[in-house]
Specification:
Strand content: 25-35%
Shape: globular
Number of domains: 1
Distance between the termini: 65 Å
Structural class: alpha+beta
Oligomer: single chain
Strand order of the largest sheet: 1-4-3-5-6
Length: 191
């Protein structure tokens, strides 16, 4: 838990097993055909305890995971501006489906993880293309580095394709794209 994996097209699939409240965050640069999969455990890094000898891995908490994953991707030739994302997990595993108390909401790590990852992606300008989150059961997620396909396997069920990560189409207007006409030729618009 808290691990970060990076794979190129020739490396095949990255996989995070047994996601309950944890998030499997898949990032993909389709031009570089480079994938990153981070197994996020907590929504935010806990304040360091005086004299603590251990620092959590940068992918363990949502508040540091997105920036860490992008740095890993860029160190291997990926580009944050081309990166798109999918996430899986965030189940409610610590409380019963009918629990509605204040103490139960503190235990909803899954929902808090989902919100924290969405916020992190937004802060870094990364588009979240697909998610399979919530519920009360565990899942496994895998991303194919060559194709950008994100696969989900709920506990006890067959694997299914969540999405194929592709860059989002960039919006444009005619003002941004100059219209140039061939020289020496009249162009008639309309009829």
């Amino acid at each position: 838990m808290g691990e970060t994996g990076v794979a190129g097209a020739a490396d095949g699939r990255l996989q995070a097993c047994g996601l309950g409240a944890c998030i499997g965050l898949c990032l993909y640069d389709p031009l570089a055909r480079l994938s990153v999969l981070v197994h996020i455990v907590l929504p935010q890094t806990l304040s360091p305890v005086s004299g603590a000898l251990w620092t959590p891995p940068p992918g363990k908490c949502a508040d540091t995971a997105v920036g860490h994953a992008l740095a890993e991707m860029e160190s291997r030739g990926g580009c944050a501006s081309r990166t798109v994302a999918a996430m899986v997990g965030g189940a409610s595993i610590f409380t019963a489906p009918t629990a509605a108390t204040a103490s139960a909401s503190r235990l909803e790590i899954g929902a808090r993880n989902v919100l924290a990852v969405r916020e992190g992606l937004h802060c870094w300008g990364i588009t979240l293309c697909a998610e399979e989150t919530g519920g009360h059961g565990g899942r496994t997620v895998a991303i194919d580095a060559g194709t950008g396909q994100v696969w989900v396997r709920p506990v006890g069920l067959p694997e299914w394709l969540l999405t194929t990560l592709r860059p989002e189409p960039k919006e444009f207007s005619l003002r941004q794209m100059p219209l140039t006409e061939p020289q020496g030729r009249e162009v008639a618009y309309g009829h």
